[in-house]
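Lab notebook, design round three. We kept the backbone fixed and only want residue identities now. Task for the bench partner: fill in a sequence for the structure below.
Input structure tokens:
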């Protein structure tokens, strides 16, 4: 009997043959943390003096940059001291190399096929876009990993999502994943690994795969992964990463559920307040005025996302305040080089430094009581972006840009540009 991706990689990493439900002890290839490093370091200090391998630890500042309060600034200072003290080379501060942790993991090729990643952020599953088994863990668990280099995991069951067809004009990978979240439900993949495969996934770019893996956790999945292919291998080659041994499921693997989706059935959609699985096609909404549009976050702050927004906004003016946050400094640099930033700023957008900002309600555009925001981010819970009395609609970058122009939620219709 064949094995799923999760069973194969955790067998490999644990050094024994395992199946879904087994417990394994494994050593991660990389560990990722952000501002919560400050509290993790305090727990770590009770366990050990030195981290087990500083080269395996990646730390970014991304949730609260630039620091909007003295408390956040002090938190950053603790992290900088810890990084220096422990000799951790993979530190991404506020400089031209920084960005959101999940973007950094894929962009800088820490994530790769066959690697095991753990991170103290629920969206660590984003790294599955590169063919890695990537899971979120708690702060105390990370402190223990830093100290001893090991963690135990339960081998998850797997849901196979086989994707065919091609997207219609105006629809996107974000619309696809919003549809799947609604189909499975917010808890429909609890402690499962989701395998994305099929010709539809093969046609997606790495950026699009990052979007869909990123939102695996919104179904309560333990991990989400796309089958690695030449697009991934080419990206790794460009980073001079060699010797990668990809891992994928056997043809006769046993799944707890198999779902088949044709991309031809996907339409521009939103997740309505206050649940990520509160799905609705944009065309089914009545007039819905917005106060703010947000383009960015670890879900949709990549160059492709900014490029599609610039195409829609070029030569026009937004009707509401529109905040743009690139996912990394490299994304910002590339967008500047292409003229994308100039187009967005000319359209009236406010460009913010790379980071999470309003997505986590920390800085850079939080919402007031009663305000409505359309966002390319991944969560729309009450209080997620500021006031608990605000309303958040999740959508694709194209829908966010089109809505910013209209001042109300609307889908982008490419044929109208002809």
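Proposed sequence:
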């Amino acid at each position: 009997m064949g094995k799923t991706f999760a069973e194969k990689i955790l067998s490999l990493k644990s050094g024994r043959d395992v199946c879904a439900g087994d417990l394994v002890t494994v050593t991660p290839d990389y560990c990722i943390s952000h501002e919560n490093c400050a509290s993790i370091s305090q727990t770590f200090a009770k366990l050990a003096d030195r981290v087990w391998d500083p080269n395996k630890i990646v730390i970014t500042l991304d949730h609260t940059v630039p620091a909007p309060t003295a408390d956040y600034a002090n938190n950053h200072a603790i992290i900088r001291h810890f990084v220096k003290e422990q000799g951790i080379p993979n530190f991404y501060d506020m400089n031209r190399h920084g960005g959101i942790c999940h973007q950094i993991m894929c962009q800088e090729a820490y994530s790769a096929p066959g690697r095991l990643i753990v991170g103290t952020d629920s969206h660590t599953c984003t790294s599955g876009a590169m063919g890695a088994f990537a899971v979120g863990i708690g702060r105390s668990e990370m402190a223990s990993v830093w100290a001893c280099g090991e963690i135990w995991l339960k081998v998850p069951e797997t849901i196979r999502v086989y994707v065919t067809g091609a997207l219609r004009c105006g629809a996107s990978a974000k619309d696809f994943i919003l549809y799947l979240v609604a189909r499975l439900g917010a808890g429909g993949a609890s402690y499962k690994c989701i395998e994305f495969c099929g010709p539809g996934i093969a046609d997606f770019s790495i950026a699009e795969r990052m979007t869909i893996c990123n939102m695996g956790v919104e179904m309560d999945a333990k991990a989400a992964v796309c089958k690695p292919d030449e697009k991934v291998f080419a990206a790794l080659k460009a980073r001079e990463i060699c010797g990668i041994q990809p891992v994928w499921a056997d043809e006769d693997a046993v799944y707890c559920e198999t779902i088949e989706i044709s991309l031809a059935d996907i339409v521009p959609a939103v997740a309505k307040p206050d649940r990520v699985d509160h799905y609705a096609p944009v065309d089914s909404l009545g007039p819905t005025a917005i106060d703010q549009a947000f383009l960015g976050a670890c879900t949709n702050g990549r160059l492709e996302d900014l490029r599609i927004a610039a195409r829609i906004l070029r030569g026009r003016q937004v009707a509401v305040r529109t905040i743009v946050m690139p996912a990394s400094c490299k994304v910002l640099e590339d967008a500047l080089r292409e003229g994308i930033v100039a187009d967005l700023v000319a359209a009236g957008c406010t460009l913010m430094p790379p980071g999470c900002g309003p997505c986590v309600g920390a800085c850079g555009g939080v919402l007031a009581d009663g305000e409505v925001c359309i966002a390319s981010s991944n969560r729309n819970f009450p209080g997620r972006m500021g006031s608990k009395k605000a309303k958040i609609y999740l959508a694709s970058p194209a829908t966010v840009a089109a809505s910013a122009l209209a001042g109300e939620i609307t889908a982008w219709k490419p044929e109208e540009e002809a």
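Keep this in mind before ordering anything: Residues 54 and 178 are 37 Å apart (CA to CA).
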